[in-house]
């Protein structure tokens, strides 16, 4: 529905141009190929902003993706093309993404996709979801997420570290200040 709005000008146009400049067609294509691998849709995986907007704007493909990762996480997918029903689908996907563990700073807002304000944040969210996919038995994209690796040290091991003098405290090896005259008069 972004065709109803007036074109931006001034600071708003500059800000929108800066947001749009961060969009990466390669990342968008990778995300669409991953979605196709899981859901069988879409046929066209071009990273073009128009293409990703057309495939994702009603939210049904996003809901289908979430339900493939964990069946039944989105109970009701709105098939209607009415604006509020589509935005409800997008919001349901975002709630599912939170459940999957996507950090809040990597989520997008519904209007970012529906009004095509920030497709880059949509791609970032889908990449974050792609990293979480391996935890749900699905193929993932991007780098593997680090896992927690807690270690337990005994009291003896912790005390052993107190006897070591760190290099941050300095060293008496290498260059030194011998030959410097601090406080001494200069002889001419």
From TrEMBL:
GO terms for molecular function: actin filament binding. One of its GO terms (biological process) is actin filament organization. PROSITE patterns: CALPONIN_1 (PS01052), CALPONIN_2 (PS51122), CH (PS50021). Residues 136-155 are annotated as: Disordered. Residues 144-155 have a biased composition (Basic and acidic residues). GO terms for cellular component: actin cytoskeleton. Residues 25-134 form the Calponin-homology (CH) domain. InterPro entries: Calponin-like, Calponin_repeat, CH_dom, CH_dom_sf, SM22_calponin. It comes from the Eukaryota. Belongs to the calponin family. This is Transgelin. It comes from Daphnia sinensis.
């Amino acid at each position: 529905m972004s065709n109803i709005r007036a074109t931006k000008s001034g600071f708003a146009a500059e800000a929108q141009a800066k947001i749009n400049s961060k969009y990466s067609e390669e990342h968008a294509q990778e995300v669409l190929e991953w979605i196709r691998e899981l859901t069988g849709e879409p046929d066209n995986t071009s990273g073009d902003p128009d293409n990703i907007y057309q495939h994702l704007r009603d939210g049904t493909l996003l809901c289908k993706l979430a339900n493939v990762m964990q069946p039944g996480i989105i109970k009701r997918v709105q098939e209607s093309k009415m604006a509020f029903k589509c935005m409800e689908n997008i919001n349901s996907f975002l709630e599912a993404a939170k459940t999957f563990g996507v950090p809040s700073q990597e989520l997008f807002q519904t209007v970012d996709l529906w009004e095509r304000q920030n497709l880059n944040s949509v791609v970032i969210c889908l990449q974050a979801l792609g990293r979480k996919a391996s935890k749900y038995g699905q193929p993932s994209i991007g780098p593997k997420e680090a896992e927690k690796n807690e270690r337990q040290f005994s009291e003896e091991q912790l005390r052993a570290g107190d006897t070591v003098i760190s290099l941050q405290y300095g060293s008496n090896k290498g260059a030194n200040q011998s030959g410097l005259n601090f406080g001494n008069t200069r002889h001419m």
